[in-house]
Amino acid sequence: MRGNKVLDDIKNYEAGLPIELVVREFGIDTKDVVKLASNENPKGTNPNVVKAIIDGANNAHLYPDDSFYELKEALSDKYLVSSKNIIIGAGSDQVLEFISRAFLSEDSKVLMTKVTFAMYEIYAKQMGATIIRTPSYEHKVDEFIASYKKHNPKIVYICTPNNPTGDAISRVDVLKIINAIDKETLVVVDGAYMEYASAKDEKYKIEPKDLIGFSNVIYLGTFSKAYGLGGMRVGYGIANLDLINLISKLRPPFNITTLSLLSAIEALKDEEFVKDSIEIHKNQLKRYEIFAKENKLKYIDSYTNFITYIFDDNIDSTQISNSLLKRGVIIRNLASYGMNAVRITVGTEKQNNRLFEVLIEELSNAK
Amino acid sequence: MRGNKVLDDIKNYEAGLPIELVVREFGIDTKDVVKLASNENPKGTNPNVVKAIIDGANNAHLYPDDSFYELKEALSDKYLVSSKNIIIGAGSDQVLEFISRAFLSEDSKVLMTKVTFAMYEIYAKQMGATIIRTPSYEHKVDEFIASYKKHNPKIVYICTPNNPTGDAISRVDVLKIINAIDKETLVVVDGAYMEYASAKDEKYKIEPKDLIGFSNVIYLGTFSKAYGLGGMRVGYGIANLDLINLISKLRPPFNITTLSLLSAIEALKDEEFVKDSIEIHKNQLKRYEIFAKENKLKYIDSYTNFITYIFDDNIDSTQISNSLLKRGVIIRNLASYGMNAVRITVGTEKQNNRLFEVLIEELSNAK
User: What is the ipTM of this complex?
Assistant: First the structure.
């Protein structure tokens, strides 16, 4: 059978390779695999959440409260917005899907930076929309405004801090972009890694309440990174009521699991875990910066829980990533993003030791 | 902002009310609420699955293996089809969404019975498709073929056994419908409750391998009912390779959780749990049939884990459902499906005792 025409041009998202695959393909022991490819929290799952999951495991046969009442109330308290302004998704990813399906068509354009989160393009293409990119991978105000004026996109994506590059755009600059944009264009401010940027430099901190006054802006957040719940698939969108009501029409019932719901509720009770995660991360991130300098690698100053190393022409990111993979170290090659670069999640001290050990050898082999 | 035109006409799915809401609204103790509204397995979560969740809780921060390798291998062994013929969804629900988005447009029609699973309509309307229904709530071969010839729908939905009515259509009759339909129309055979129908009468048993030879047929199954994992959101579609590859373009990465994946894998190792669930169910279902006869209620012979009582004009299903709700007993009113009827999940012996006790009183009050 033939599907809708828009599907002809769609590639699937290239997920970070799972540990299981490396074990199967290369015969490496699970315990010897170091996965630094999916920006998972190296601090692991919050012990309070682990306890909540254990206590709730008996209820896996029961559907969750589809109103997500308690979770929305907790997010409402955290962000000082009404619970009615919140939509819950299976990861902020799913909210991106709702947005794309609510606003895009084959006549639409969407605007994003040269290198940013791959799902913006994938969801937009599922609707047949045309992708417009700014010249730089960074979010530059002038480039965004010029490109907006030229192309009149239906959606503008601002990923800050940006994935997979790690740079960020300041609150002031985000507001400049928003203010230059007509109310019929939706601005998505994707703060999946915002906790890391906020902790590093206050001027990059963007909160939902900064944006909720705009009828055409939605803020996205997630439990997958700083809250350490990547495997549970919980994210959210925060926006004015009309926008939330509109995209809620595309939310399927029970779109997060019963255990995901209680995990997110529990995680929100423990901001100390997030602070600790970020503190540990900061120290380990410094090691990656020092490693880069010592080995004459370019890197992008990181406002996230990963770092991006950019290689000179004498090193090939695909070759390096594959060499590491065969030795059980999984990182993300950015060749498919058009960059001769790799994105490495800043892991635990031990994981990072192993990464440095293997990478230094493979860099030397490659030259 | 204005969304795509197709959204104007969309209502959200009316989920079975959660226990939490009844506790909040009516001040009833959680332990006193009896929820028989969402066809959850009264046997609870499989203890082996509970153990697997407890053992895996520490990995909630890690994304699942997005290839779902082990789960697909297990389903492949169970159904004697290749793992390449399988797509995993967040419930079979999500596979319905993929199908709708892959094949429908504002020019499409979809065909289903008068009363069937609400998400067929909701997902089809999200694409702007026109809904065509057969005159009967049962799946009647002649009605399907006549309506197919008249309307030339893009998708034909066969929900067997049917939700929310509980009746089923035989394998022979399903094949009659399939054989009457052109290869450019997709036939969806939704077997969410198939384990119950198969156990009751072999002639209603439909397996993926019966259907996989047809290029335009997909079978859907779920872990939510007989396997007791409603809260974990895992379902699947099984079809020929081209069809699976096509709808896989719409599958988002990590669309089930890490704990959902291990739960489903564990659940598949224990078919005894499913057999026991069905055995307990059979005995309790008999009590619902006897209750109906004693109280002169019409019911639909059930091939599922619920039963549908149809009321005469002197009883109003909305009034009865609301009266029960205020007393902490949640059942599903079928008024929104155009039936003066209620759907009741066959619960545990104790839950059913309470249902009978309250229902008999409210029926007598209503007269």
Answer: 0.96
